[in-house]
Amino acid sequence: MFDTALTAADFIFLAKGAGMTIVVTIISVIAGTVLGIVFGVIRYQLGAIWAAPLIFVLDIFRSIPLLIQLVLANAFMGTILRLNMSGFTVACIVLSMYTAAYCAEIVRGGIEAVPATTRRAARSLGMTWGQDMREIVLPLATRVALPSWIGLALGVMKDSALVYVVQVTELLRSTQILITRLQEPLLLLMICGAFYFVISFPLARFGGYLEKRWSND
Amino acid sequence: MFNYTFQWKQAMARLPQMLDGAIVTMQVAILSMVIGILLAIVLTMFRLSGIRILSAVAKAWVEIARNTPALFQIYMAHFGLGSFGLHLSPFLSILIGITFNNAGYLTENFRGALKAIPDTQTRAARSLGMGAAGAFRHVVLPQMLRISFLPMTNQMVWAILMTSLGVTVGMNTDLYGVTQDLNALTFRTFELFALAAVIFYVITKIVTLGARLIAARLFRY
Questions:
Q1: CB pairs under 8 A between A and B
Q2: Does the CB of A159 have a partner CB in chain B at under 8 Å?
Q3: Class at the top of the CATH hierarchy for domain B20-218
Q4: Interface residue A200 vs chain B (CB under 8 A)
Q5: Phi, then psi, of A25 in degrees rounded to 5
Q6: Which of A10, A29, A117, B93 suits a disulfide with B78, CB 3.0-4.6 Å?
Q7: What is the pTM of this model?
Q8: Cβ contact B155:B175 at 8 Å
Q9: How far is C-alpha B67 from the chain's CA centre?
Q10: Are A141 and A110 in contact (CB under 8 A)?
Q11: What ipTM score was computed for the predicted complex, to two decimals?
């Protein structure tokens, strides 16, 4: 009853796609988080009025479909600047900015969750702004921000399914290529979905656990 | 390095077609949101019902919707159901895919909102003689919807952005699909997609501002 044309070579093909998904995700999340922390701190330090240009730019990345961001970036790099970038590079740049836009909000929320009195106490003890940020704000803000950051990282992994539009063959794209060839959509999609689920579910659970564990009430 | 002539006129000439596409995009987003909210309420009741099968269904729905890409869910609706002989039009596939996603995320939001409603209220309603259904409908549900109004707005924005995925299952009437077809005609990729991006931005801004106004009006007290 259950026979399939799926061969070992196809599995390796799928695994390569999965590897691509993970590589793109890791690069974008790391770069995006670093950028996001910088943007978030700038956003917090400047206040809503002086940081308005930054807020506007970051808001654009959150209000335009990722698919369009990728197409636009590809067209901009390729036909306007004529940079001859690979699709992989474009995908990583766009996803990093996309991550940074969300991460900046998470970072700002984390910093704002640190009570002003605690920070004033730190400064009164003679700590510099840098010391206050490192020793006081960082540990306290991390507790607030980490669960949402895990959610963001997982979101980026799921959204990385869209980078097929700049000719990067990640998991969902390789699944689709196999579907076209084997005509067994259900089985292949199940495998693909199971892969995403296996990565995402434990981490999402871990995030939920941290949120429960670290919440003050 | 920078010898590219922008042809904004060509893109602007297609603006009416793209705005028609934007209307289809909004139709999909609003429909998926309305059905998604109704489904999420049903799933929340499943969760609260205490019947094991029903709460397992709700749980599985939420976890699958939240832990797989939206694009995968749309593929599932289009190709997955297709392999059961159920061939859906692109419009229906994208609608089902996004609705599935919305319902999953909203159920999770409702769960958070329910935590904020004290148990004592339900008990008070019950001791006043309301049935379990009456207490849920008249006491818990309105507060739940009110608390999760902001997450619902976010989900609405997400739904609008997700409609752009319809192009992967052959939808060519929504904003992204129309833009891609025009791109195939004119090859003004950057101009056309930049215009589409502006339209998307304006739509999401209108939705978030509108939601804020509605919230200010609804939640005056």
A1: 102
A2: yes
A3: mainly alpha
A4: yes
A5: -60, -45
A6: B93
A7: 0.89
A8: no
A9: 16
A10: yes
A11: 0.87
